[in-house]
Amino acid sequence: MPNVAGGESGFEVSSRMRSPEGVEIELPIATPAPRIAAYAIDVALVAGLAFTFFILFMIGSSHAEWLTDRMEEWVSANAQGDAQAAQVAMGSFLVVIMVVLTFGELLYFSLWESLTHGLTPGKYAMRLRVVGPNGQPIDFKTAVLRNVLRIVDVLPASYCVGLIAIILSKRSQRLGDLAAGSLVIRTDRVERPREPYLPEGLEPLALSREQLARLGTRELTLVRSALRRLESAGGTRPAVIDQVADAIAARLELAPEERHDPVRLLQRTLLTALRAQRQ
User: Domain ranges in the chain?
Assistant: First the structure.
């Protein structure tokens, strides 16, 4: 179900769901601002590519004369100050340009999103991706459907319909996304927390293979969390240090003399695990 939480840049929306394997997945839904920026990048690329291919096609085909005639009529009408004649001269040319841009945009977005699992150059730059309702990659049919409906989303101007739909939708979906069942999510990379500080000259614990096998992911997560809590406590020792140290000592069946300094015990435990992982 959707979840809305306050963030530094406003409201951040996420969608939580459970995979067929029973694992809960949280998809960070993209807000309008990065989506608009990504679309602006892609539209600039579409316009440049479409205009270039159109001109090359016209010059290299029998339609070059038609293009030249329209340009000459437009220049002549402007020179005579006849604005209506200039509009008529360029009207058909602009219609062709709009058709080329529309189909070019549909082809551009559909191919990029289906071949790259939801990415376009603009989305890649803004760290966004289009996915299915459960976070799975979208297929070509989904990509085409969500992009065909851009024709509606862009109405009446400046993407008004699409923007209103994104704001009102629980998962920030425009009409194309609602019809295709797709989501636009953020792919921001979360920095991995650094390892807690381990003092120089620290000696690892002398553990047997059986004891080392008891240091699983859960135990090491507890040790790291407790040591990070200590570093942020500003000189005081949180109660969690003693609790985690007692739990680790009991888990590893350590001798009483190993338990007298809880902080050092946790540091030595982490050092022992890190060295064992390198071997």
Answer: 2-186, 209-278
